[in-house]
Amino acid sequence: MKKLCAMLFVLPLLVGCMEAYDKPVFVEIGGNSTPFILNLEGDTKQSTVITEEVLKKAIISARRVQITYRWQKTGRGWNVGKFVPNERLILVDRDPVTRMWTGDVSTGSKAVNQAIELESKDSVNFSADIKLTARIFDNNDAIKFLFNYPTGKIEKVVLKDSYKDDYEVKKVSLEDIMDNEIQTKIQQVMQEFCNESEMDGLRAEKGKMMKKVEAEVIPFFKERGIMITAIALSGGFNYRNKANQLAIDKVFQAQMDKTVALAETEAAKQRKTAMQELGEGEAMKATAKAKGEAAAIQSIADAKAYELEKLQENPEAYLALKQLELQQNALKIWDGRWPMIWNGSSGGNSGAAMLMTLPDLSKITPPRNLNKEKTDKESAAAKPAEAPAPKP
Description:
Number of strands: 12
Order of helices and strands: HEEHEEEEEEEHEEHHHEHHH
Radius of gyration: 58 Å
Distance between the termini: 210 Å
């Protein structure tokens, strides 16, 4: 009994002298991130000064990391203390980030006025909305980025352990760098451009201004590990004095009215020209038609005159030819049957004869060849006269 009581008295003392158990802690690395493991306490293996070379050696390729701890006493007892981590895990997210800096709190990346405030050479205050996309391209850019910019966000890994605090994973926030340093750099370059031009010139040179921003801002941050893939104006300029905007709107409306009036005038001229061309075309068609009809009438008249001339020269031959034409036309439409009208019989011989009879061509004087006679007359006129015979 005495031994049992002694053991019960000594057992709590032994338990109090035992060191707490070091439960392993793991952190999984997801997404498109570059992980760095840095020692929290200096040693001979790692320099206490963070350089790009140190960061290059600190990159790890594992997607799950075990964080090591050491026991730190905080009191007199053996088990009075806690575990503290030996390493710090830092993640650099390489996913693209897009920011919208506007004066409208409902359209920007943040619910505040983030527009770029500017002033022209003639002291006109205005602002510009900017849309920007950037990313950290690879591990080399991640090293440059982490060297130039401190860690920002902290994510905690919750540990249900009375001897360990929740582990903190630090992340570099590209959004914060864009909303602060990059925005300030863009505003600086744009303001330098605005100092050289008045407001009227700036409205016409927005493209040149953004070219200048790209030429200076993109290389500047590329050296710091940030790849800017796009910088663009989102809309036009926003004037602080609303009267300036109203005046610009009126000028624009007047220009549009002038453009519309010029377009309508040009359209009216084109319609007038088209109507004139159409009328001239119709007139040409009517003239051509009239000329054709006149030529046809003249041809008919010439034919009638020619026939009349032939009739007057040799009436018998003309009438004989006309009779042949009539008989030829009758033969074309003859159906092969005898006609219903008959001549009387002659010479005591019964017989029938068609009314169509060929004329006796031997009694017809052949028509004169007017062309040959004309040619003969011209040849005789051209032939030199014979010399008279000499007188005896």
